[in-house]
Design goal:
Layout (H helix, E strand, L loop, with lengths): L6 E12 L5 E11 L8 E7 H14 L20 H18 L3 H4 L2 H8 L4 H8 L7 H11 L4 H14 L32
């Protein structure tokens, strides 16, 4: 019996990032765990700020004109990054936005969405990659980002299972699993297991 496809997305761990002595912003961790064939990586973790979500929504809407995309939480002049209620309300809105986006097959076919969720490329670099102006493909960019990050516990379990099933000491070159244990390039994402659904 085939497994039902799932995509779990969590928006969590808001952090204040100082740009300079006068400016700062909040970014959020986006954790993805899936068995969907639509995704290059089955587990990923990136950090994004609100204005990058705004950019993503605009690009997705431009490419799917007939669809009514879900709204982002409103940008309000009263938002204060030191107010936990404001920050959590925005975080919840961003998660709801992504949950709805990831339920639409047409939007799942947009390479920008995958680069947004599975790499730390800037919006400008995402556009360059999607339009073929880079030396790397979308899949290459996702694999490259993954190779810079540590493995997640779920991936370690899958890798061990694969090794045991193949009865081999070598990893498959197509596994795409990252090999770096350097936490300094993890972009603040914490290793995580997916919470059980109740």
């Amino acid at each position: 019996m085939p497994l039902q496809e799932f995509v779990t997305v969590l928006v969590r761990d808001p952090r204040i990032q100082k740009e300079d002595s006068w400016h700062s912003h909040i970014d959020y961790e986006i954790f993805i765990h899936t068995n969907s064939m639509c995704f290059t990586r089955k587990t990923s973790c990136v950090r994004r700020r609100f204005r990058e979500f705004v950019w993503l929504r605009q690009r997705l809407q431009k490419n799917a004109v007939l669809l009514q995309l879900p709204e982002l939480p409103p940008k309000t002049p009263f938002f204060h990054m030191n107010n936990p209620h404001h920050v959590d309300h925005r975080r919840q809105g961003l998660q709801e936005f992504l949950e709805k986006i990831l339920q639409n097959a047409l939007l799942l076919s947009d390479s920008r969405l995958h680069l947004f969720l599975q790499t730390q490329l800037s919006p400008e670099d995402i556009e360059a990659c999607v339009s073929g102006q880079t030396k790397y493909s979308v899949a290459d960019a996702i694999h490259k980002f993954a190779s810079l990050k540590r493995r997640f516990p779920i991936e370690d379990e899958e890798r061990k299972r694969g090794k045991n099933e193949a009865d081999s000491d070598s990893e498959s070159s197509s596994s795409g699993l990252g090999h770096s244990s350097d936490d300094s390039i993890s972009h603040g994402c914490k290793a995580s297991t997916v919470p059980e659904e109740s």
